[in-house]
Design goal:
It is a single chain. By secondary structure, this protein is of the alpha/beta class. The protein folds into 3 domains: 115 residues, Nucleotidyltransferase, domain 5 (2-Layer Sandwich); 137 residues; 125 residues, no CATH class. It contains 18 helices and 7 strands. It has a 5-stranded mixed β-sheet with strand order 3-2-1-4-5. A hairpin with a 5-residue loop joins strand 2 and strand 3. Helix 11 crosses helix 13, helix 15 packs across helix 17 and helix 16 packs across helix 17. The chain is globular, with a radius of gyration of 28 Å.
Length: 413
């Protein structure tokens, strides 16, 4: 008898349901979110016929957490079903809109019983690529946190300290640069900044790690910060200065986290055997390469073909046809992290690959906007990456973007 297991995940407990081929309930149990609860689940599966040769497949609404990690370690197929899809399936079994944890567990088990073929199990990625995924995603989150902290601080500075923004307007990184953060920490208000001497500014630059051109930069900043400007009332200016220091501490932490996680992600990425192939692509460095590997994994059976990977990344178009209506549009349901990495990759490839630049220009000439042309280029590059990883060969520019052969007219006999 073939059986299927569904687990309704919750923070403190999980409801388990096992059904047979006919949809009959074989067993049910509520387990705790701890080691004892996991042992109860293993015992329940064993009583239902679980064995190493034919492990019982499990459907659950999340792909993360200790319970999922332990289930994957047993070698069984684990299906992470989207909660929205579970809600749609629930209507097949009850019209009264009844909902409970046990009902959801039964629905999850029945999803595998009836529609297992249309759902994909979690990929069998290596432990190393799972670690890369943790670091790469955390680094991307840290970059987003840094951007948010930067925007909050910049918005406040515009209200009372515009001379500081002008002083670092042309510097790469703006106020996120270590020199800018060190100067702001030394003088959080325009009144304090006007009282700084070039020597004070030079000392702040040294604390930030600057080693060259310190005197010239200190003189430039002294002139910029001492320029005449409008002021808030003194007490209001002091209060805004205290607020700026609080936001600056958040920005310092975000910058440190982004840099530290980027280093860790790159170091782990370098240890993976696919790193050499991935970084052989034009415009694909170690950090963005780590993000790409984190999302596609190293389970080569995960994507049946190139189009499956492109669809997962959202670069392949989607077609909606009904009767005489036919609409081709870009995908909105996709892996957002992989789509973002593909966008950055395609943009970098414009200056690193003549073939990629020519492909982009052809798309622009044909009527595509900038974003659409980059998405089309990302689609092309992802196809090349899938092919190179399958055959274990590095990227070759002349093969990926071969020059079109001129059309030859047939000669007369």
């Amino acid at each position: 008898m073939t059986v299927y297991c569904g687990i309704d995940w919750a923070e403190e407990h999980h409801d388990v349901a096992i059904v047979d081929d006919s949809g009959g309930l074989v067993a049910r149990l509520r387990i705790g979110d701890d080691a004892a609860g996991y042992q109860q689940l293993i015992d329940l599966l064993a009583d239902a016929g679980d064995n190493p040769q034919q492990p019982i497949p499990v459907a659950i609404e999340t792909s993360r957490g200790l319970l999922v990690a332990c289930l994957r370690a047993t070698g069984r197929r684990v299906y992470a079903i989207n909660p929205v899809a579970v809600a749609r399936y629930r209507d097949r079994y009850t019209v009264s809109r009844t909902k409970s944890d046990h009902v959801d567990a039964v629905v999850l088990a029945n999803i595998l019983r009836t529609d297992m073929a249309v759902h994909r199990p979690l990929p069998e990625d290596s432990e190393l690529v799972q670690a890369i995924a943790v670091l790469a995603r955390a680094q991307q989150d840290a970059v987003w946190d840094r951007t948010q902290a930067h925007n909050k601080l910049r918005s406040l500075l515009r209200e009372y300290y515009p001379t500081f923004l002008l002083a670092f307007r042309d510097a790469r990184g703006g106020i996120t640069r270590p020199e800018a953060r060190a100067v702001l920490a030394a003088a959080p208000t325009p009144t304090q900044a006007a009282a700084l001497t070039p020597d004070d500014l030079a000392e702040a630059l040294r604390r930030a790690g600057r080693q060259r051109g310190i005197a010239a930069e200190a003189d430039r900043l002294h002139q910029a910060l001492a320029a005449a400007t409008l002021h808030q009332p003194p007490l209001v200016e002091q209060a805004m200065g205290r607020q700026a220091l609080a936001l600056l501490r958040a920005l310092d932490t975000a910058c440190l986290n982004a840099e530290d996680l980027a280093t860790a992600a790159e170091q782990s990425f370098d240890q993976h055997p696919d790193a050499e192939i991935i970084t052989s692509f034009a415009g694909l460095g170690r950090l963005i390469g780590a993000r790409v590997l984190a999302e596609i994994g190293d389970d080569r059976s995960r994507f049946a073909d190139t189009r499956a990977l492109k669809s997962y990344a959202g670069s392949a178009p989607i077609t909606r046809a009904s009767g005489k209506s036919l609409i081709v549009m870009h995908r909105r349901v996709k892996n957002q992290r992989l789509a973002h990495a593909g966008h950055l990759w395609a943009f970098s490839a414009l200056s690193a690959s003549p073939g990629a630049h020519a492909h982009y220009q052809r798309r622009r000439t044909s009527g595509d906007g900038h974003t659409a042309a980059l998405r089309h280029l990302s689609n092309r590059l992802l196809g090349c990456l899938h092919h190179c990883l399958q055959i274990r060969q590095p990227y070759q520019e002349e093969t990926a973007f071969a020059a079109p052969q001129p059309h030859q007219m047939p000669t007369a006999a």
